[in-house]
């Protein structure tokens, strides 16, 4: 695989594609441009995940209608599904614990959640436990970009033990979010604590929905099978509401990943 050659068959479970609902495309023409960029990058299935936070409300029915229009434009080239990126606010956790499948990826068990930039580890652990008790599998969006995980990567183990899944942003591997995010993404990958890679694409130009450069880094660090697991097989299982084919147990896992970060 070459960093210059997009392969086909990426499955993207984090994409701000819908027009006018969040900080993704402002209008239909920008959404259409992003859609074409997603297809050109070799992605064949994608979940639109608008923000659900204090700034942006998530309306599942209205989002579904916007998605239908985009699916018509994509035709057979790309299959689209709906989810959201649920900010872990008190109110959101209450609502999602009542009806997790109103917010989850394609209505299945997997629920994409976003941490506040700074958070109290115990309180967020309790919130995640609550979502697990409600039958959801929280998918933790980009822990490698969060300052708390950057300082305390061992916090992630607590959440993985609850049954959470770690979703890393593709461009973190290539340095788009700085050195610390890049180092932590490599360490999580090699420590077998990275379960999914997604684009978190917001527009055709800014934060473009590309996988191939990250895939080249992942292949170099962990081999080609891991690229398939993280960028295709695991995300597809999430869309189809199946157990993840790649989900190594934390027990017996290489413990060196923290030392590697601090070394
Ligand atoms: Fe996002």
Task: Please supply descriptive tags for the structure shown above.
263 residues; alpha/beta; TIM Barrel; six-stranded parallel sheet; three-stranded parallel sheet; 10 helices; 15% strand; globular; disordered N terminus; binds fe (ii) ion
Task: Describe the SSE topology.
Layout lengths: L9 E6 L12 H13 L2 E6 L2 E2 L7 H15 L4 E4 L2 E3 L2 H9 L11 E5 L6 H13 L3 E5 L5 H5 L3 H8 L2 E5 L9 H12 L5 E3 L13 H11 L1 H16 L17 H6 L1
Parallel strand pairs: 1-2, 2-4, 3-5, 5-6, 6-7, 7-8, 8-9
Helix pairs in contact: 3-4, 4-6, 8-9
The protein binds fe (ii) ion (FE2).
Q: How would you describe what is shown here?
A:
This protein has helices spanning 28-40, 60-74, 90-98, 121-133, 147-151, 155-162, 179-190, 212-222, 224-239, 257-262, and strands spanning 10-15, 43-48, 51-52, 79-82, 85-87, 110-114, 137-141, 165-169, 196-198. It is an alpha/beta fold and 263 residues long. The protein has a single domain (10-262), classed as TIM Barrel (Alpha-Beta Barrel). The strands form 2 sheets. It has a 6-stranded parallel beta sheet. Helix 7 links the parallel strand 8 (165-169) and strand 9. Helix 8 (212-222) crosses helix 9 (224-239). The longest helix has 16 residues, at 224-239. The protein is globular and about 45 Å long. Mean pLDDT is 92; it is low at 1-6.
